[in-house]
Automatic annotation (TrEMBL):
Belongs to the peroxidase family. Ascorbate peroxidase subfamily. CDD domains: secretory_peroxidase (cd00693). One of its GO terms (biological process) is hydrogen peroxide catabolic process. It comes from Canna indica (Indian-shot). This is Peroxidase. The lineage of its organism: Eukaryota, Viridiplantae, Streptophyta, Embryophyta, Tracheophyta.
Length: 326
């Protein structure tokens, strides 16, 4: 490379360095040097790793927590707030988990540098770490930080903003578009269903009485229908769990896309994105590897993590993630 080219590249790089941390924008490594000698991201990572060693289901728990946080009032940790009538209490919350891990990380960081690290950033960083633990180093992505916490949480917002399991692909894409995400992002982010579970109550209609037909959903593989019927008896007092990725339920990988292409989607929305023209091309490319899921999933997570964030002097840094600071 000619030396003047190198100089130009260096100048551009410097420009970027100074341009990126502008007030009020998310950035990679926001907490570097802000917590005395404590490495904020390393602190969160070690807590996630400790939990993962005992309980791999922390991966789906955090993924879903982050998604729900970002889709309701933006990624502002409003989902963590306790109290009657908060997002936490709204029915689509069905079993959102991971709150205690966020509390643990927050306590560890408050002990090192009080009032510095937001709960919303802890969710974002912990989720990234969990994804890497569940999928391997190729799932590493440069998580952005610099979010601040909101002080409002309303159950009704959760009801209005969280997509229903029965959506068509077109409806799901519209719901994501309303948050500034593309059809491709919709497909990539639904790939979060590569881990974790749903409950029989959510899918009973697909198994026994699809759309009032008295029959199973014809878009589900009949063998899978039998397997799931055994796990989800029609009249049962217990609401069993069903894994969302029947092939590799504990690994973050692209098998979700292979499953839905084989008519083995668990939620109706999962199956629908493999069927409709708006999304089926992307599904196929991710299933075959023509599109690289590990890299693209990380990119989409960064986009999701930037939805309607509070930054700069907006919002607040809570002391306890479950309570607004007065
Ligand atoms: C149209 C969009 C979406 C719909 C309708 C949807 C719906 C659901 C439903 C109904 C469940 C099962 C809840 C239960 O029975 O307990 C679930 C679980 C889950 N969702 Fe989604 N979801 C969507 C998008 C996403 C996104 C974008 C992510 C993350 C990137 C995500 C991650 C998860 C995970 C990891 C679980 C398993 C949770 C666990 O095992 O604890 N979902 N989702
Ligand atoms: C989540 O919603 C259900 C209703 O579907 C409710 O019974 C439950 O208490 C809510 N969870 C929390 C943490 O409030
Ligand atoms: C650094 O540590 C001291 C002593 O623990 C603490 O008072 C101070 O708040 C910390 N600095 C920051 C930036 O948090
Ligand atoms: C569900 O049933 C209604 C009424 O029979 C019908 O109009 C509609 O197309 C069906 N929808 C699906 C997705 O099968
Ligand atoms: C997507 O679905 C449409 C309509 O069913 C079909 O014509 C097309 O071949 C599908 N594309 C892929 C890549 O499967
Ligand atoms: C809550 O947020 C609103 C709007 O951002 C702000 O005006 C208000 O002062 C905040 N209240 C607290 C207690 O932080």
């Amino acid at each position: 490379m000619a030396s003047h080219n190198l100089a130009a590249v260096l100048a551009l790089a410097l420009l970027c360095l100074f341009a990126v941390p502008s007030l009020g924008a998310l950035q990679v490594g926001f907490y570097r040097g802000k917590c005395n000698s404590t490495d904020v991201e390393a602190t969160i990572k070690s807590i996630v790793a400790g939990r993962f060693a005992r309980d791999r289901s922390i991966v789906p728990a955090l993924l879903r927590l982050h998604f729900h946080d970002c889709f309701v009032r933006g990624c502002d940790a409003s989902i963590l707030l306790d109290g009657s009538g908060t997002e936490k209490t709204a029915p689509p919350n069905l079993s959102v988990r991971g709150y205690d891990l966020i509390d643990q990380a927050k306590a560890a960081l408050e002990a090192k540098c009080p009032g510095v690290v937001s709960c919303s950033d802890i969710i974002a960083v912990a989720t990234r770490d969990a994804v890497v633990l569940g999928g391997g180093s190729q799932y590493m992505y440069a998580v952005q930080t610099g979010r601040r916490d909101g002080n409002i949480s309303v159950a009704l917002d959760a009801l209005r903003n969280l997509p229903a399991d029965s959506l068509t692909a077109t409806q799901a894409v519209a719901a994501f578009r309303a948050k500034g995400l593309s059809a491709t992002d919709t497909v990539l982010l639904l790939g979060g269903h590569t881990v974790g579970i749903t409950h029989c109550s959510v899918i009973l209609n697909r198994l026994y009485n699809y759309n009032g037909s008295g029959k199973p959903d014809p878009t589900m593989d009949p063998n899978l229908v039998s397997v799931l019927k055994a796990r989800c008896p029609q009249r049962s007092t217990v609401d069993n769990s069903v894994v969302l990725d029947q092939a590799t339920p504990n690994n973050v990988d692209n098998s979700y896309y292979k499953q839905i292409m084989a008519k083995k989607g668990i939620l109706r929305v999962d199956q629908n994105i493999a069927l409709e023209t708006v999304t089926n091309g992307t599904v196929k490319a991710l299933a075959t590897g023509a599109l690289n899921f590990p890299t693209l999933f990380g990119n989409a997570m960064v986009k999701m993590g930037a939805i309607q964030v509070l930054t700069g002097t907006q919002g607040q840094i809570r002391k306890y993630c479950r309570v607004v600071k007065k």
